[in-house]
Design a protein that fits this description.
single chain, signal, CHMP3 protein, Snf7_fam
């Protein structure tokens, strides 16, 4: 049991350190600048697409913070179990650890590892057997719904300082007509679109 606890603690510590958000937040700032540029060029559709990506990235950051809290809860529980084992020579079941693990196994990126750790905890008698349906149907399906349109409006209003979008009502403003583009401007726009696609890919990864 002592060895199992050390293994679990080691694995959890590695994952706890990996829960960081600066990369996502840096990309978010780049996308914000892209929204402003697209708004100036009258590219409303591009603004909406980028706003949706910002909403997804902010949700991702919120989930990371919540997941880190669950991870820290499990780490603390494991340290308590290790101390208990050394003093009393036995382990106790922990409902707090079990609840935290049930949340962690729902995260696609670490689901496989958390599932294996849960099995080890069950063998050690730290948590009860988790229901099989806890592990099933856990794929995150965060599609943008119609009700998200209001949130898109808020994002656009926020980034463009009120030039585009309304908070909280739906966007009805028409963007100003873009100036006619010459050949050089057309090339610049293609490069802008490629840069945006690259940033969106980074946000999704």
């Amino acid at each position: 049991n002592d060895w199992i606890l050390f293994q679990i603690l080691s694995s959890l510590s590695v994952f706890a350190v990996s829960f960081r958000t600066p990369d996502i937040q840096r990309e978010e700032e780049k996308v914000k600048r892209s929204v402003k540029d697209a708004a100036k060029k009258g590219q409303r559709d591009v603004c909406v697409i980028l706003a949706k990506e910002l909403i997804r990235s902010r949700k991702a950051v919120s989930k990371l913070y919540a997941s880190k809290a669950h991870m820290n809860s499990v780490l603390m529980g494991m340290k308590n179990q290790l101390a208990l084992l050394r003093v009393a020579g036995s382990l106790q079941k922990s409902t707090e650890v079990m609840k935290a693990m049930q949340n962690l196994v729902k995260i696609p990126e670490i689901q496989a590892t958390m599932r294996e750790l849960s099995k080890e905890m069950m063998k050690a008698g730290i948590i009860e057997e988790m229901l099989e349906d806890t592990f099933e149907g856990l794929e995150d399906q965060e599609e943008m719904e119609e009700e998200a349109e209001m949130e898109i409006d808020k994002i656009l209003f926020e980034i463009t300082a009120g030039a585009l979008g309304k908070a909280p009502s739906k966007v009805t403003d028409a963007l100003p007509e873009p100036e006619p583009m010459g050949a050089a401007a057309a090339v610049d726009e293609e490069e802008d679109i490629e840069a945006m696609q690259s940033r969106l890919a980074t946000l999704r990864s």
